[in-house]
Amino acid sequence: ARLMRRAPSLLVSAAVALAALSTSGSARADVSSWLSVQLGVAQLEWRDRSRHSRMLMPFDVGVGTPPSLPVMVGVGARLVPYFSEGFDYAAYVRLASQGYVTGRWGAAIDGGAYTRAFGGGSSGWLGTLNLGGPWGIIASGTYETGNTSAKTMSVTLGIDLLRLTVYRLSGEQQWPNVNPAW
User: Fold this and answer.
1) What DSSP state is assigned to residue 25?
2) Is the whole model's pTM more than 0.90, yes or no?
3) For each successive 10 residues of the chain (182 residues), what is the average pLDDT?
């Protein structure tokens, strides 16, 4: 019950942070944003030290500083369904290279908090390393550690729909981006 009371406050905090970063004093400023879906496998370790492998499908959404900067700083929210288990909810801060943001080769690091709504519940910290390739392709590795000694390691492969379309600067010869973000 206590866990379920904390989940809404985490989501409200993420929404407030996203709203604060999306305001601008100048109409010429552009923000970077992401919307991705991935598929992968996770190794979950419970408080009793038992381990289970599960498929997962993370969904990420976020907003950050302009893509014209060499390094982007932003905030995001993540929903992670674990097949035949339940969901994790997360809010995080992202640091990303310009190449990552614009759909070329690059990297991004996410760090934040999560809440688990299954298996007795857990909340704690997460870290993710995202490697991005052309056309919005993403390969990610995530580590979570929780307050109930729960640990999770996962690897995923997916696509960022905004890095594929709006922010894409790769593949201009094959598919021109007629209205890039900057």
Assistant:
1) S
2) no
3) 60 69 59 94 85 95 93 97 94 96 93 91 94 94 90 96 81 72 66
